[in-house]
C-alpha cells in the first residue's frame, strides 16, 4: 500500500451524533451512577461536606479543601470507570485485571490520605485556636 492509502483524506469519520446538551446529560448520569452504586463515593461526599463546612466556618483554606475534594472524587470516578471496563472484558480472574483494579484503587487511597493530611494541616490549627 502506498502512503496515500493511510492518508487522513481517505478516512471517513462518522460524525458524532450527540449534542453538547447530550454530553452534559451523559456526564450527569455518570455522577448519579457513582452516587447510587459506589459506597465509597457516598462516604467521600459526606466527608467532603464536613471538611468544606468546617473550612467555611473557620474562614480558612476553602480553595485548598475544594481542590482536595475534587481530586478524590475525580479519582474515585476514574477508579469506577476502570473497574467497569475491566469487568466488561473479563469475567474470569486474570492477574492483569487485578493489577488494573488494585492500582486504580491505590490511586484513590493515596489521594484520600493526602487530602486528609492537607485537611489536617489546613484546618486543625485554626480549629484548635477557635475552640480555646
From TrEMBL:
Task: Name it.
Answer: Diacylglycerol kinase
Q: Where are the transmembrane segments?
A: 45-75, 103-128
Q: How does it sit in the membrane?
A: Multi-pass membrane protein
Which family is it part of?
Belongs to the bacterial diacylglycerol kinase family.
Molecular-function GO terms, alphabetical: kinase activity
- Cited CDD domains: UDPK_IM_like
Localization per Swiss-Prot or TrEMBL: Cell membrane
- UniProt-listed InterPro entries: DAGK, DAGK_sf, UDPK
Q: Which UniProt keywords apply?
A: ATP-binding, Cell membrane, Kinase, Lipid biosynthesis, Lipid metabolism, Membrane, Nucleotide-binding, Phospholipid biosynthesis, Phospholipid metabolism, Transferase, Transmembrane, Transmembrane helix
Which Gene3D superfamilies does the record associate with it? Answer: 1.10.287.3610
Amino acid at each position: 500500500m502506498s502512503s496515500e492509502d493511510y492518508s487522513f483524506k481517505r478516512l471517513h469519520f462518522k460524525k458524532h451524533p450527540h449534542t453538547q446538551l447530550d454530553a452534559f446529560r451523559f456526564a450527569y448520569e455518570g455522577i448519579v451512577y457513582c452516587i447510587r452504586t459506589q459506597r465509597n463515593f457516598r462516604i467521600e461526599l459526606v466527608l467532603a461536606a464536613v471538611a468544606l463546612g468546617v473550612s467555611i466556618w473557620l474562614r480558612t483554606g476553602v480553595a485548598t479543601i475544594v481542590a482536595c475534594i475534587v481530586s478524590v472524587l475525580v479519582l474515585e470516578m476514574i477508579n469506577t470507570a476502570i473497574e467497569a471496563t475491566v469487568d466488561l472484558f473479563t469475567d474470569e480472574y486474570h492477574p492483569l485485571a487485578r493489577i488494573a483494579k488494585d492500582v486504580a484503587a491505590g490511586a484513590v487511597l493515596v489521594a484520600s490520605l493526602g487530602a486528609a493530611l492537607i485537611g489536617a494541616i489546613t484546618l486543625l490549627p485554626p480549629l484548635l485556636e477557635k475552640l480555646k
